[in-house]
Backbone:
């Protein structure tokens, strides 16, 4: 190391170069730190995302419940409509059958009255 001793001027130039390098690196670091999101901003954003997800999940659940209610209402409507149509069909059948039965009964009574006399 004895042969590698630097003169004061050379040492001063190397120190100046080192200071220049350090200030350049700090400038790069500062420019990068300006672009990095702070922890507070990240925390606020994460909280907002969590709240929004919770709200969306609640909305989704209410939509599922509304869909289920609509499906149940539709099924109930279909059942009541089926029962109404069946009752209407039976009324029409009775309206057609009862007069025929009365006519047959009248004919049987007339034949029985004619045979009995």
Residues:
């Amino acid at each position: 190391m004895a042969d590698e001793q630097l003169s004061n001027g050379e040492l001063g130039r190397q120190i100046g170069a080192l200071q220049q390098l350090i200030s350049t690196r700090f400038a790069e670091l500062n420019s990068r730190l300006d672009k990095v999101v702070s922890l507070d901003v990240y925390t606020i954003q994460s909280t907002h995302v969590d709240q929004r997800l919770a709200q969306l999940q609640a909305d989704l659940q209410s939509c599922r419940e509304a869909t289920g209610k609509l499906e149940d209402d539709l099924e109930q409507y279909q059942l009541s409509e089926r029962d109404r149509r069946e009752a209407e069909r039976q009324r029409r059948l009775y309206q057609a059958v009862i007069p025929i039965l009365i006519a047959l009964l009248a004919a049987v009574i007339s034949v029985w009255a004619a045979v009995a006399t």
Observations:
- The radius of gyration is 49 Å.
- The CA atoms of residues 37 and 110 lie 106 Å apart.
